[in-house]
Amino acid sequence: MPSSMIKYPFPILLSRRQHQRLGDMYVKHAISDHFKFTGLYLTFWIQNSSKAYDMVSYLSQINQAMGMRNAAQTLRRWRSFIGPQGQGHNMGFLYWQLNDIWQAPWWASIEYGGRWKMVHYFAKRFFSPVIVVPFISYGNSQLKVFVVNDKLEPVDGAVLSITQYMWTSFTPVATTTINVTLAAAASTDVYSNKMQYEWKQDVCDSVNCFLWFTLTDPHSRSALAPDNFLLLEEPKNLVLPQASIYVMQVSGPTSSTSMPGFKVFDVQLQADNIALFVWLNAHHVSGHFSDNGFLLKDPRTTVQFYTRQNVTAAEIEEALTVNSLKDYSSV
Known about the structure:
One of its GO terms (biological process) is glycoprotein catabolic process. The chain is an alpha+beta fold. The strands form 4 sheets. It has a 4-stranded antiparallel β-sheet, with no helix packed on it. The chain has a 4-stranded antiparallel β-sheet with strand order 8-9-13-11. The protein has a 3-stranded antiparallel β-sheet with strand order 1-2-5. Strand 1 (about 130-135) and strand 2 form a beta hairpin. The chain folds into 3 domains: about 5-125, no CATH class; about 130-235, Sandwich (Immunoglobulin-like), CATH 2.60.40.10; about 245-330, Immunoglobulin-like. The mean pLDDT is about 90. The protein is about 20% helix and about 30% strand.
């Protein structure tokens, strides 16, 4: 397909690759439920940008990744509980990973050629043996936190940290720490508090701040679970700052001990603001990152890029682009 056909609104040829006759409309409505994808914003991107297709691709990937994340976390936290409607005692979560075998829009989480879509990076986290699952119980506006431990050994004396951040500052507003004990092969309800008492009221509300969760071993200070975050509003309602994210340096390659045959490059990033759904893309280079689609809450971070291709650090740096949600939600 010529590059001139890869645009949005989708031309007829591209739309006919959609198996569901109204699939493009469903995707548009699903995106607009959560993101600025209607009216002025959509008109601006279609009329004034050659990257409207990139926007649709990016936002639909977030939609898929967050939907799968929320479903997985909910089903996993139900492992040890029965809800008021009889839901629960769920022993796991499966999704159809289905690596792509052709080049086409698809629900697969690994692209043709081996690159990971955003949902695959999220799956790496939500399928960890131990996960922190925060959510809002909207019936009584409570923040609740469960920790799922699929390991066959209990965990004593873990420390759960709940940190408030404003979108406009790398400095935390406040942190709450709780000592927790996790039963083996179980989901444990470890924290509950009314949101009206959770926020530092003179600074935070649901559109200006977010919550960050860590679970650590107090002795070694090592992470027991992947970090997690909780948005208190739909992304389209958040007051996000414009963030400039720079690739400061790409170094390597080194050899991977965990994945023989792969070269590993360190990618150092620097940002001037917190950024949501940061997406790294190494154009025309097949491979994947150690993390992607993440919430960048620190001014500097380093991720790894894994590839089998015979490329140099300079070629990786030249191929890299970095975007975040704010890049596609302002006019």
